[in-house]
Write a structure and sequence with these properties.
Elements lengths: L1 H7 L2 H12 L13 H16 L25 H13 L5 H24 L2 H12 L3 H4 L6 H21 L2 H17 L11 H6 L2 H33 L10 H10 L1 H12 L1 H14 L5 H18 L17 H13 L3 H17 L10 H5 L1 H5 L8 E4 L6 H6 L2 E4 L2 H4 L2 H9 L2 E7 L12 E5 L3 E5 L1
Parallel strand pairs: 1-2, 1-3
Antiparallel strand pairs: 3-5, 4-5
Helix pairs in contact: 2-5, 3-4, 4-5, 5-6, 5-8, 6-16, 6-17, 8-9, 9-11, 12-13, 13-14, 14-16, 14-17
């Protein structure tokens, strides 16, 4: 009993049991309610690394019609890890989930250990718990680079703390590589580099040079990728996929006009209402903290404000845009939790954890998964994998991914336009997949129907 009581106060215990919980249905396809679009574009690139070309500098998607599909996007490190795993075990759509879960869980432990050494164990534990049960809880098992990239930076900051204290270049190198890959994997993740702020005051001149050089190289590499290479790929290969934001002035006006939706991202989406309350009350207590903590918070806010003002109208549409700000919310909220008496502290943690697990519970479950997984085999009886198809999934590439074909995304109105269909045929489109439910609605085409299933019809054009 005493051992269990001790374990309940250990962060590794909570990381372990929540890791096991998130293994539930880890092999499900990317069809859950939130962001199947985003997840299937990651898996498309990974599968094309395996089947077409493994060069990470030329990522390619499947919905570019008769083009190569090569386009600009975040540096595809997560996609490439999926490819490497596939070389050993053969390809499957769920590898990205387990990779993200392992890396994010490792990053959260490193973040906890860093704060424990830098501040104190109680603050570190409370920060880690709020963060664990925030959006990180379910996004850490999605096939997306958002928590993955932040976790890489956490690993890097932890490594540099060890470098400063143990003066081993191996820790510097690990920090350099993981931070560079983290920022490259998702540019807004640079916000959490603010947590390295205390290291500036700990390091001697030689260490400052080592770390400063690594940060400079990482910044140059990221700037080159996002502002030079991504536009080059889009221009050279004719397909635009990546959203680079809008002007700060336009975005500021949009966010102000939609202030209720903007605030909703903070008080509901990020860490739930309970996590937001802890954050607000923690801000009240922030003035009592040392200069390092206050400086860290200010740097985080400045960095996130810059990203937020470049996000355009996407900030209020996609909840994962708030993820880079959540570590700061957890850190500030931890000041409030640390001030509570034990009984109230336990109650607060219980509320935060229960809300965190239950508020996105629907992401644990998938409907009609078997029907989508069977598409490739069913279509292969009629069409080669090299044949181009059009599918009435609208803007969603998920069904196209499961068909294991390349081609076009369209809606029913477009497919009812004979000129539109003729143009597709001229460009090599050989088949149409008409979804009956889920991502599309049924429409009859004046062509030969080759196959009819519960969820789609296959036409030869």
């Amino acid at each position: 009993m005493q051992r269990l009581k001790h374990s309940l106060g250990e962060y590794w215990f909570w990381l372990t049991i929540t890791f096991v919980h998130r293994l539930f249905s880890i092999m499900q396809p990317p069809l859950e309610v939130a962001h199947n679009w985003r997840q299937t574009t990651v898996t498309m690139v990974a599968r094309n690394f395996l089947e077409v070309d493994p060069n990470p500098f030329f990522p390619r998607v499947d919905m570019a019609g008769d083009l190569s599909g090569i386009t600009g996007m975040e540096f595809p490190f997560l996609n490439f890890l999926i490819y490497l795993v596939s070389l050993v075990f053969g390809y499957d759509h769920w590898y990205g989930r387990i990779i993200n879960l392992v890396i994010t869980s490792t990053g959260l432990w490193c973040f906890y250990d860093y704060l424990k050494r830098q501040f104190n164990p109680k603050l570190a534990f409370n920060t880690g718990m709020i963060l664990l049960f925030s959006l990180f809880y379910y996004y850490s098992r999605k096939i997306m680079p958002d928590t993955f990239s932040i976790a890489l930076i956490f690993i890097g900051i932890w490594s540099w703390q060890r470098f400063l204290r143990e003066n081993q270049l191996a820790f510097w190198l690990l920090g350099f590589v993981t931070i560079a890959l983290g920022v490259l994997s998702k540019l807004p993740s640079v916000v959490v580099l603010a947590f390295a702020w205390p290291l500036v005051f700990e390091s001697n001149l030689r260490q400052k040079i080592w770390i400063g050089s690594a940060l400079l190289v990482s910044a140059v590499a990221s700037a080159w990728w996002y502002f030079s290479w991504v536009p080059y790929l889009e221009e050279s290969f004719g397909y635009q996929h990546f959203f680079m934001g809008q002007t700060m002035l336009w975005t500021a006006q949009f966010l102000a006009e939609n202030w209720t939706d903007t605030l909703f991202m903070f008080y509901n989406k990020a860490a739930g209402f309970s996590g937001f309350v802890a954050f607000v009350l923690g801000l009240y207590l922030l003035g009592k903290q040392g200069k390092l903590a206050i400086g860290l918070v200010l740097v985080s806010i400045i960095l996130f404000a810059g990203f937020m003002l470049k996000s355009g109208d996407k900030f209020t549409d996609h909840e994962y845009y708030i993820i880079p700000f959540i570590p700061l919310m957890a850190f500030v909220g931890a000041f409030f939790l640390s001030s509570l008496k034990p009984k109230f502290w336990i109650i607060a943690l219980l509320i935060i954890s229960v809300e965190g697990i239950t508020r996105k519970w629907e992401d644990q479950f998938v409907k009609n998964a078997d029907a989508y997984l069977a598409m490739d085999a069913e279509i292969s009886s009629f069409a080669l994998q090299s044949d181009l198809v059009v599918i009435n999934g609208g803007e969603y590439p998920t069904p196209l991914y499961f068909s294991h074909r390349k081609g076009w995304l369209a809606n029913n109105d477009q497919l009812s336009d004979q000129d539109f269909v003729n143009d597709l045929k001229t460009n090599g489109c050989a088949y149409a997949i008409i979804l009956k439910k889920g991502f599309g609605t049924e429409i009859l085409l004046p062509y030969t129907m080759l196959l009819s299933t519960e969820i789609y019809d296959l036409y030869e054009l």
